[in-house]
Specification:
The strands form two sheets. A six-stranded mixed beta sheet has the order 7-8-9-3-10-11, with helices on both faces. Strands 1, 2, 4, 5 and 6 form a five-stranded antiparallel beta sheet that branches. α7 packs parallel to α8. α8 links the parallel β8 and β9. By secondary structure, it is α/β, with parallel strands linked by helices. The longest helix has 18 residues. It contains ten helices and eleven strands.
Amino acid sequence: MSAPLLDVRNLRVRFPTATGPVEVVRGVSFALGRERLGIVGESGSGKSMTGRSILRLIRRPGIVTADRMRFEDSDLLDISEREMRKVRGARISMVMQDPKFSLNPVITVGDQIGEALAVHERLPRRQIRRRVVEMLEAVQIRDPERVFGLYPHEVSGGMGQRIMIAMMLIPEPAILIADEPTSALDVSVQGEILKIIDDLITSKGMGLIFISHDLNLVSAFCDRILVMYRGEVVEECKASELANASHPYTRGLIASVPRLDETREELPVLDRSQWETR
């Protein structure tokens, strides 16, 4: 069995408050291979904080600790910030939730994607432009030469998300962290974006961490699922076996999802007293 791309053990994230420190990620452990790993849970469960911690994007006063956070041959908590910049973007990339807040409004699409490549590779300007146009084609953007010169406000939400994916994947990272990459899109565009991500992940042999609150989406798209509640992983299972989950929290999440093939006067409410001890 090959070594995992990423090995995380006892990851914790805490922030100071007026009443004392609060842990928002509490002892999370997992390994990621060349697979699609889904992390699900309610808003505030610690999903995004887990993804940001891997890239060391939690700034002071937040404090991140772990027994191990190893990527390939490097411990991500021990390397310098300069070394981390070589990992961030080039080896591990992250697609944020809403492209409108992630893209620079005063820089053209082509220059932004090209910057992601130029930072990590010394290439002639002409070669960078060619790579950017090829990447725009790879994410199924029509007329990539025209889109190259557009500004973010001139593209739709779906195209903006494709541009973000292109920007994160052009350095050919080993791991992609996708934080709610389709939540702001309609269902038809959502399917197109997921197919693009899946095709690129499969063709390049990458690992994917897919963060979402959509159980149906993650169970259909991912290979394995971690269920988080209040900063902890309460259950891990194969995506195909999510319907057979045993933890009361996971069962409650599944039961609260409305279905077209049934009629209920009201959706059930999670009874947290079944598992909460604090």
